[in-house]
Amino acid sequence: MEATTTTTRLNTSISTTPISPAINTNFSYEYLPAYTLALVGTSCSLSILGAVSIALTYFLLPEIRNFPRKLLLYLTFADLLNACGNLMGTIRYVLSKSGDKYGDNLRTSTYNINKSEVCIIQSCITTFSSLASFFWTVIIAVYIFTAVVYSSRVFKGAKAECFYHILSWGIPGTITITAVALKVLGEDHSMVTSSWCWIRSDLEPPVMTSIWMVLAGKGWEIMCYLTTMSLYCLLKLMLWKRRTVSFRSLNNEFREEDNNFMWVWFVLYLLRIWGTVRFVLSLTPVSTNSEDVGLTQLVLLNLQGIGDSSQAFWNFVIFCLCDKTVRKGITARCRNRSELTPLLSPVDGTQTTFA
C-alpha cells in the first residue's frame, strides 16, 4: 500500500528534469492529475457554450444591440477561440500521455498526427486568441471611459471600429506568425500553462523562453490588468463625483444593464491572475523540496487551468444571466414560441400526412 501511494505521488508531482536554466524548471510536470484535465475540459466546454449564448442573444435581441455590446461580441469570439484551443490542447495531452499514464484505450491507431505539429497548431490558436482577448478588453474599457466621462464619439463609428479590428487582430497575428517563423511555439511541460502548449521550454539561449513568454502573452496581459483597472477605477470616481451610478444618465447610448461592464476587469483578474503568479514564480529560484511549495504550485496550476479557459462562460453570466433585458427577451420569445405552436396545426383539426 505504501509503494502504491509513493508511485502516485511521483507521477503527479513536480518534475525536476532540467529544461531551461533561464526559468525555474522545478515547476514542470511529468504528468498532470486526471482531475486537472477534467477541470480544464469542463471549463472549456462551459466557455464554448457561454460564447455561443452571448452571440445568439446579440442576434436574437435587437433591444440590446449597441456599440459596447458589439465590442463584447468581438471579445467573445476571441475567448471562444481560446477555449477551443485549450480544449484541443487538453485532448492532445490526454492522447499523448494515454499510453504512459492514463493507460486504457485512449491511444488508438487513428491518432497518427505528429504530436509536435498538433502542439504547435494549438499554441498558434491560444497565443493569437489570448492576445486578441487582451486587446479587445482594453478597447472596451477605453471606449466606455471616453463615452461616459467625455461623451466622446471619436472612438465610435466605422473608422474607429476598423481601427479596433486592425489593432486587436493585427498585432496578435503578427506576434503569432513571428513566433511560428522563429519556431518558439511548442511544448512547455506545463511550467506556466496547464494542459496546453505555449512557448517551448528548451529554447536556446535559455533566456529566450522567458523573453518570448513576455512578448507572446504575459507582457500584454499585465498591461491589460493595469490599463483596465486604472480606467474603471477612474470611471467609478467620476461617477461618484457626479452623484450617479448609471452610465445611461451621462450617455443615452448605454442601457442600464451596461453598468455590468464595470465587472469585466475584476473577473479578468480573478480568472487570469493565477497564471501570472506562476509565471513570476517560474522566474524566481524557489526550491520545491518543501511539500508546501509543491502543493501551492499544484493549486495554482488547477486555478489557472480553470480561469484561463472560462472567461467566455463568466462573461455569459455577467451579460446574459445578470442582464434583465436579456432574461426578459429570452423568456418572451420562448413564451411566444409556445403560444404559436397551436397555430401551426391544421385549422380543420386533420393531420397532414405525406405520401
TrEMBL record:
UniProt keyword annotation of Membrane present: yes
Keyword Transmembrane appears in the UniProt entry: yes
Main location: membrane
Membrane topology label: Multi-pass membrane protein
The family this protein is said to belong to: Belongs to the G-protein coupled receptor Fz/Smo family.
UniProt keywords, alphabetically: Membrane, Receptor, Transmembrane, Transmembrane helix
Pfam families: Frizzled
UniProt-recorded name of the protein: G-protein coupled receptors family 2 profile 2 domain-containing protein
GO biological process per UniProt: signal transduction
Entries under Gene3D superfamilies matching the protein: Rhodopsin 7-helix transmembrane proteins
Domain G-protein coupled receptors family 2 profile: residue ranges: 34-323
UniProt-annotated location(s): Membrane
Transmembrane segments: 34-59, 71-95, 131-150, 162-182, 220-240, 261-281
Alphabetical list of InterPro entries matching this protein: Frizzled/Smoothened_7TM, GCR1-cAMP_receptor, GPCR_2-like_7TM
Highest rank taxon of the organism: Eukaryota
GO cellular component, one term: membrane
